[in-house]
Amino acid sequence: MSERILRVALVQDRDHGDTGANLANIETRVAEAAARGAKLVLLQELHNGAYFCQHEHCDEFDRAEPIPGPSTERLGALAKKHGVVLVSSLFERRAAGLYHNTAVVFETDGSIAGKYRKMHIPDDPGFYEKFYFTPGDLGFEPIDTSVGRLGVLVCWDQWYPEGARLMALAGAELLLYPTAIGWDPDDADDEKRRQRDAWILSHRGHAVANGLPVLSCNRIGHEPSPLGASGIDFWGSSHVLGPQGEFLAEAGTDAAEVLVVDVDLRRSERVRRIWPFLRDRRIDAYQDLLRRYRD
């Protein structure tokens, strides 16, 4: 079976202070990725600014914008300029009082190929997303592009094998996760290691269980809490995995980086022939998955 090589790039970076500065930095990073031959570029979650969900405040809704809107116009032009498929992550204003955490995929001609609204919404200390985001209503539908069928999910979705599986069952060729995740600086070092290891293991599990490459792009840097708490140290570690969960590339924990690597999309076929997990699924016995819990 011949190879089908796709060069991908993940843009791992910190918040640069405001939308204009972040988008200008993204333009520089995407240009670098394209110059290095990337045809698919993945950005981190909510890349236009700080991770504002550390508190609940109505003024933060001013960050949201419609799709299409100013950011999609600028990002679409960027994709077209460099001839890349670009996966972005925006705070969508759908209507007054109705907002989503939305990934938007741009085709090489600058058009919007599709979007995905984050389905699983956390509400944890420092991650108060339920205040801001309505759960997605577009389902787990891959987005067709010139480089392949992309199973785009967002951050908290990474802890749910159901989302990855449904994307795979719908024919996704890669799983992509724009992400914003990090440590509480006050946590002990062993707790920090456990959390980061669990995050990476979840992605490796998605790759193995579905026989697909996985791309996860996280942010870096310390972002203080508006509540006076310790804030978040985003741990970077953006990575690209092969269909057996193997690392193809991994970024560091604290430096901006454009991670570029070649992915052989044909390997999924070869791996699924020796590990036919989709064939052996007991779809006649999974009805209880539709229940919250088996009491």
From TrEMBL:
Stored Gene3D superfamilies: Carbon-nitrogen hydrolase
Domain CN hydrolase intervals: 6-265
InterPro entries documented for this protein: Aliph_Amidase/BUP, C-N_Hydrolase, C-N_Hydrolase_sf
Record keywords, A-Z: Acyltransferase, Hydrolase, Lipoprotein, Transferase
GO terms for biological process, alphabetical: putrescine biosynthetic process from arginine
CDD domains according to UniProt: CPA (cd07573)
UniProt-recorded Gene Ontology molecular function terms: acyltransferase activity; N-carbamoylputrescine amidase activity
Keyword Hydrolase annotated: yes
Protein name: Apolipoprotein acyltransferase
UniProt organism field: Arenimonas composti TR7-09 = DSM 18010
